[in-house]
Amino acid sequence: MKGVLVFKVKGRVYGQAANGRTVLLFSPGAVITDDEARAAGLLAGAPTAKAPARGLVIASSEREPDEAPPAKEAPPAKEAPPAKEAPPAKPIGRMTLAELRAVCEAEGVAVEGLNVRAELIEAIDLARESAQEPEGSDSRLSDEN
Questions:
Q1: pTM of the model
Q2: Which of 2, 8, 31, 110 lies at 20 to 30 Å from 142 by C-alpha?
Q3: 32 is in which domain, residue-wise?
Q4: Do 100 and 120 meet the contact criterion of CB atoms below 8 Å apart?
Q5: 11 falls within a domain
Q6: Pairing outcome for strands 13-16 and 22-26
């Protein structure tokens, strides 16, 4: 930093943002250059002009301060991706009590008096087994002739 003076800030230094709000520029103990001090109004004179950063181009005539950059034209709409398959069903043994009650309600299983997960799982299994068996047969009976 040849030829640059450095200052240590003793008190808070405030400035104005582009939208008019008061903002803290430097806190006590911060080390600033003479250009930063001039830009903040702590030293007489104007700060030296600096070239803009490479690759950064802001055309101030096209937008207002603190405004988002101009919107680019939207690219042509792409076709919607194919719908994802539904996630695999959660095993009954891993469901919560609330999920088991929802399954019972959806499948028409009576849940009065059932308050434990094991009871709900058993009721769902019995209802599903009875729905798969043909009418007139009883799973409690066996052919032992």
A1: 0.34
A2: 110
A3: 6-39
A4: yes
A5: yes
A6: antiparallel
